[in-house]
Amino acid sequence: MNLKPLKGQHHVSAITANAKRNYEFYTKTLGLRLVKKTVNQDDTSVYHLFYADERGNPGTDLTFFEIPNAGNTYHGTNSISATSLRVPTDDSLTYWKNRFAELGVDHDEISNATGRATLAFRDFEGQRLILVSDQNNKGVAGGHPWDKSPVPAEHAVRGLGPVLLTVGQLEATTNILTQVMGFREKGTYNEGDQQVFVYETGEGGTGAEIHLQERADLPVERPGRGSVHHVAFRVENEEELKRWAELLKELRIPNSGFVERYYFRSVYFREPNGILFELATDGPGFEGDEPFESLGEKLSLPPYFEDRREAIEARLKPLDTKE
């Protein structure tokens, strides 16, 4: 089947136990815009918060499900073990290092181990994040920072960068990435004594890379607050997504089939080590039920949930996002 290459990362979805503190960290500390406050469509008692560039352009979304009783994450293999966020230049990392020190954010030193300047840090729940410089990047374009962000535009986050997968069996995941999903091997680097393999798709660059390491010595990760739920990859449109669903079916790879998410359309499946992948369309986007100027300020529900709004709101703890 002749499919177009995947275009890169679409979004990454993670878990928080505290929506209020999560909102404060990702908007006030990291300077992202909350472009959608909605619910998990598979469990409407749970908030689903979307942080992104000014309008939630595909490839810029870092999203969170609030699960108040989520326990600690016990790190291990078969996991999405780090999410990168793109910043414009190497100098931006110095800005962020100083900002993190001033605000008490747990962070490492600036590193060049990947071949690009990076700065690893953790949020208040231990979510593993990495800022990556786009100074020498060639490939998928980044997003456009919100002009009301507390972070200066010249250093603001531009979108998602490489996503690091840690697996118990390298070959199985490599085969899915290269033989099914169309990724190509780009190179390797060493992180400490661990070799990391780099794969890219589409135009390549920071917004279209998966970094993969094998850690057969680790137990399987037990996810909780501060863990990542899934990574989604960009598909041009609904027609192309349905062709991907057909391909997965032909290959007898168990999958969700076509799923309507209103803001985009999706297909979900697990790669052989159990990590959840999603294929998601670039559109329709986040402005179908809210104007650009007030994105994220109210609880948005897809039309098929509107008749249940009162009951849904009654189960959610109020979250003020109009600040």
UniProtKB/TrEMBL annotation:
UniProt keyword list: Dioxygenase, Oxidoreductase
Domain of life: Bacteria
Name this protein carries in UniProt: Ring-cleaving dioxygenase
InterPro entries per record: Extradiol_RC_dioxygenase, Glyas_Bleomycin-R_OHBP_Dase, Glyas_Fos-R_dOase_dom, VOC_core
Molecular functions per Gene Ontology: dioxygenase activity
Pfam families: Glyoxalase (PF00903)
Native source species: Bacillus canaveralius
The keyword Oxidoreductase is annotated on this UniProt entry: yes
PANTHER family noted in UniProt: RING-CLEAVING DIOXYGENASE MHQA-RELATED, RING-CLEAVING DIOXYGENASE MHQE-RELATED
Record-linked SUPFAM superfamilies: Glyoxalase/Bleomycin resistance protein/Dihydroxybiphenyl dioxygenase
